[in-house]
Design a protein that fits this description.
This protein is α/β, with parallel strands linked by helices. The protein has twelve helices and 18 strands.
Length: 408
């Protein structure tokens, strides 16, 4: 019997665990090395669009996650006073892109991914460093705190500050500050009933989204200098910036405790990497293409990466060819959207808001065009069927070489 190929995954986040599950399902012997003492994620939510849900179909949990969809009715964009700029209907999104948009706690997704792996594959509390990326004639080597491990494939899913990226591409300038910071909170809000929405103010945005488990996921972003922090606590900072915005923002802030609020400056890779691999090491997710969260695609693209990587197996040149053009385009679009929704000039904001309102009234479908070529992606292999997707989608898979449904 042929010996199974060995893969080492550095990083136990969503991208790393999806890659581990996809490789394990393809017959690889997988070990996941996570620096943190447990695989419990940071206490925030994630938005999964139809593109990543189709990728999760490949490993068998797409419909499980779709069942957690909670967005119903009219969502859309508002101003801080509550005036609507545009409407986005949940059913219209699902009909246009072949499935729902699902917001769920990261822990829920992590648990579903972990359940696909044998317990012995998971090694939390194990920092890892790429010592040698290997080549066609020798395996890659990864150093842990107590040993060196050889692997036919190393998946580096070690995040925006990726040490593996620096080893593979030491001349690359790394990440840039995106110009804004973000806050996130997941809390129960008794009696809160509202549709998902996002609100745009001068240099600030706020999003409120109900989750299937009854809690509310809220996020905020504001143009700030890098490294700045509240003089007291981050809940107080949110109250200063957003406390007089429309409902349900005040109620969400009232329900949150200071310790519930997470704050992180946003960094992205402005200069694309020359490749997403070197030797036998492949970069996945933020390690390869960190982007602003303004399209909600960071985690989605990591999930796509993982499934495409497993599809190509050891052919990392094919993985780079399939993923680098798409993720570069998505990342650049996320930067452009950040400039749009975090505008600070009054005149520019007035023009933006007037345009959005007019488009929403005259041609509502145009509001969704910014999501085209993102949400309609299909994975490079079957199955990706969904009982919630239109039956026609089952015949639209892409060729086995991993080309995208659309590439522009």
């Amino acid at each position: 019997m042929a010996q199974s190929k060995r893969a080492v995954v550095i990083g136990g986040g969503i991208g790393g665990l999806t890659a581990a599950a996809a490789l394990h399902g393809s017959g690889w012997e997988v070990t996941v090395l996570e620096r943190a003492p447990s695989l419990e994620p940071v206490g925030a939510a994630i938005s999964l669009a139809p593109n990543s849900l189709r990728a999760l179909d490949v490993i068998g949990i797409g419909d499980e996650i779709r069942d957690l969809a909670a967005w119903q009715g009219d969502g859309g964009l508002r101003t801080p006073s509550g005036r609507r700029l545009s409407r986005t209907d949940a059913d219209a999104v699902a009909a246009r892109f072949g499935g729902p948009l699902v917001l769920l706690h990261r822990a829920t997704l992590i648990n579903s991914l972990v359940a696909l792996l044998p317990p012995e594959a998971l090694r939390p509390g194990g920092a890892a460093t790429v010592v040698d990326p290997g080549d066609a004639d020798r395996p890659a080597r990864v150093a842990t705190s107590d040993a060196e491990v050889e692997a036919d494939l190393v998946v580096a899913a070690d995040g925006v500050r990726s040490a593996a990226r620096r080893v593979l591409f030491p001349a690359h300038p790394g990440t840039d500050y995106s110009g804004f910071t973000t806050w996130r909170v997941v809390v129960p809000v008794p009696g809160a009933e509202f549709a998902s929405h996002e609100t745009w103010g001068p240099g600030r945005i706020w999003g409120s989204h109900p989750l299937k488990d009854g809690r509310v996921y809220a996020y905020a972003a504001a143009v700030t200098p890098a490294g700045e922090h509240a003089r007291d606590d981050e809940k107080a900072e949110l109250l200063r910036r957003y406390g007089d915005w429309h409902a349900p923002v005040p109620a969400i802030l009232a329900a949150a405790r200071p310790e519930d609020v997470l704050r992180h400056d946003v960094h992205h890779i402005a200069e694309p990497l020359p490749a997403y691999h070197r030797g036998r090491v492949a970069l996945v997710g933020d390690a390869a293409h960190a982007m602003p969260p303004t399209l909600g695609q960071g985690g989605n693209q990591a999930i796509e990466d993982a499934v495409v990587l497993a599809h190509h197996g050891g052919d990392l040149a094919a993985y780079t060819a399939a993923r680098l053009p798409r993720t570069t385009a998505v990342a650049r679009r996320a930067v452009r959207v950040a400039r749009l929704n975090l505008m600070t000039g009054r005149a520019a904001i007035a023009v933006r808001n007037t345009t959005l309102t007019a488009l929403s009234k005259v041609a509502p479908a145009l509001v969704l065009r910014g999501f085209e070529d993102i949400a309609d992606w299909r994975p490079p292999q079957r199955p990706y069927a969904s009982r919630q997707a239109p039956a026609g989608n089952h015949q639209r898979s892409t060729p086995s070489e991993g080309r995208l449904h659309r590439t522009r």
